[in-house]
Amino acid sequence: MEKLFTKIANWVAHIAGLPPTFAVCCLIVVVWAVSGPFFGFSDTWQLVINTGTTVITFLMVFLIQNTQNRDGAAIQAKLDELIRVSAGHNHFIGIEHLTESEVEEIRDKCERAAKRHDEHIAATAAKKAVAQKRTPKKHAA
Fold it and tell me: How does DSSP assign 109-134, residue by residue?
């Protein structure tokens, strides 16, 4: 059942994102609007578009959420594997399960560390530039 739902969700999400699908939806709205005078702009005429769009929106929310959840989990797994096999800190693996404030605290620590690293690189570059100015240059004859 899960594989069938995943297959259907992927197919619907793919089809829903295509330009022809958007064009068909626009055409449906235009046909509905043009048919208004024929139906006297009745309550039933209005109810048709309202009900149709509400049902489609309701179902699409679940399909899109399912697709996004799987995409997010797949990206997280890939990032975790990159962290695991690299020189990165393994304690970052799984931080998506922490609370928002815990993730924010880790993010602040990372930003401070990056700033210290940038300052260290700038200081090293400045020292190197000063050292190069002090060494006499040899002129070619």
Answer: HHHHHHHHHHHHHHHHHHHHHHHHHH
